[in-house]
Amino acid sequence: MLEILDYAFMQRALLAAVLVGITAPAVGIYLVQRRQAIMGDGIGHVALTGVALGFLTGANPVWTAVAVSALGAIAMELIRWYGKTRGDLALAMLFYGGMAGGVLLINLSPTGSNANLTTYLFGSITTVSPEDVVAISLLAAFVVLITLGLRRQLFAVCQDEEFARVTGLPVRTLNLLLAVTAAVTVTVAMRVVGLLLVSALMVVPVAAAQQATRGFAMTLALAITIGVVVTLSGTVFSFYKNVPPGASIVVLAIGVFALITALAAPLAKRRAGRVAAAEERCTLRDDVLV
Amino acid sequence: MEAEEARESGETRESGETRESGETREPGVAADPAENPAADPISLRGATATLGGRPVLRGIDLTVRRGEVVALLGANGSGKSTAVRSIVGQVPLSGGELTLFGTPRRRFRDWARIGYVPQRTTAASGVPATVREVVSAGRLARRRFGPPRKADRAAVQRALELVGMADRARDPVSALSGGQHQRVLIARALAGEPELLIMDEPMAGVDLASQEILAGTLREQVAEGTTVLLVLHELGPLEPLIDRAVVLRDGCVVHDGPPPKAVGQHALPGHDHVHPHAAPDAEPIRTGLLT
């Protein structure tokens, strides 16, 4: 079992996997809370153009993906503010434009091909370079700093934006920061999980955790734990079975979700029953005006 | 101009019979309105606002003086919620002027002085949150960044106790009844220890037991000198607390003075008896509608 640590590429892949396991649910919880679970998916599509731009210009695709997906995330946030009526269509344009732009640019570049693109779409354990590890670590540190350091502020903004504005929090700045952090997370995750499945890792561990928890902090902690467990075990599985790690990680995460749901549903039912039993009593209301 | 305003409000005070006699008010004493400790917490003059091209506020004046409890009444669609939401900056005014504690709304930054209780929505948040976590968000008005200190935790605990929810602090808000949820939202506003409480329909969909707890909480706050502006559908158990009622109809003020007695809002013209926010059990049975 431990022989996989003898391979340098596996050491890098596992380190990247842990960082993805931490960062994706840490950002995802705020998106889920704001009912924007699909946002990670959109950023993933836009990031593809960034990756292709890296191939075209010879720059490291991680950094070009950060730049392009951050711009895309900011655009999505601006559409959320101002685009009241046809915001969904504007977002759709952004998604498809990002995808099409990526395929177009990568085929124009001398070094890129659709085969390269596949490793970015579904993840790959053999392609995480030492240089990628440095980039991923720096970006993951940024994501952890924001998502955990500003936990109370981001919680307030995502839970009740109107109230947060009246407390005087810089809500617009925090929203933009969250959008950029989500974009950074997508690029942290794209080498291991892949751009098409990154959103699953933002959403599924949170969805699984909230079946069993009662508070936000507990949900965050459990979601990160689930994230790390599935990314590590999925990466190891991919090493032995030679499948893209993104696929095995996401299938595992959904398995954990199903397991927790099956275990937690009877518990929640009993708890709800107890609360209802304690509160359902008749009261005589003597406020009839005659 | 300031002195003029102060004199004006001093005059209306007579008819309004407010608890506070205005001894702290000395017209024209302070040069900078922001520094004037006697400045009215809320002063809205000739305010107009439109929503989706339709005028919702058509030039309303609303002054809330220090220590006063003012109820904003009116039928559904009369503009009362819009008025309150424009005061807290959630709906832009298309005309008129608004000052908060003597500072024009645009320059007002001292949000910790205001505790806001928005209209309760039934849509639950996606991720579970405990009662304490939600109430703690209100403390951000006092300490926006940085880790919470002892005083912050104490203020949150005090707010929970004020609304009688301290024993539910670790429960998820999704498990609460409408009335309990409303109490949590009020505790969240109180956690910031505000001087002015602004509440939008705090009694909508709230069971009687919670209504009485809320009335008690409010009574304590008022006794400590908190100023209150609340949107109400009817006066209900809060009636004894209310100094003055402002009634809106079609975006205009039609009454500003003592609260309409007993029959409350149901006796007002234009009341249409549609209660989309209230749960059926929250609405008292009234048999005297036609009298």
TrEMBL record, chain A:
InterPro entries: ABC_BtuC-like (IPR037294), ABC_TroCD (IPR001626). The keyword Cytoplasm does not apply. The chain crosses the membrane at residues 12-31, 62-82, 89-108, 133-151, 188-208, 220-240, 246-265. It is a multi-pass membrane protein. The keyword Transmembrane helix applies. It holds the Pfam family ABC-3. Keywords: Membrane, Transmembrane, Transmembrane helix, Transport. It is found in: Cell membrane; Membrane. Belongs to the ABC-3 integral membrane protein family. This is Metal ABC transporter permease. The lineage of its organism: Bacteria, Bacillati, Actinomycetota, Actinomycetes, Kitasatosporales.
Automatic annotation (TrEMBL), chain B:
Keywords: ATP-binding, Nucleotide-binding, Transport. The keyword Transport applies. GO terms for molecular function: ATP binding. Residues 42-275 form the ABC transporter domain. InterPro entries: AAA+_ATPase, ABC_transporter-like_ATP-bd, Metal_Ion_Import_ABC, P-loop_NTPase. SUPFAM superfamilies: P-loop containing nucleoside triphosphate hydrolases. Residues 1-26 have a biased composition (Basic and acidic residues). Residues 1-45 are annotated as: Disordered. Residues 30-41 have a biased composition (Low complexity). CDD domains: ABC_Metallic_Cations. PANTHER family: METAL TRANSPORT SYSTEM ATP-BINDING PROTEIN TM_0124-RELATED (PTHR42734). This is Metal ABC transporter ATP-binding protein.
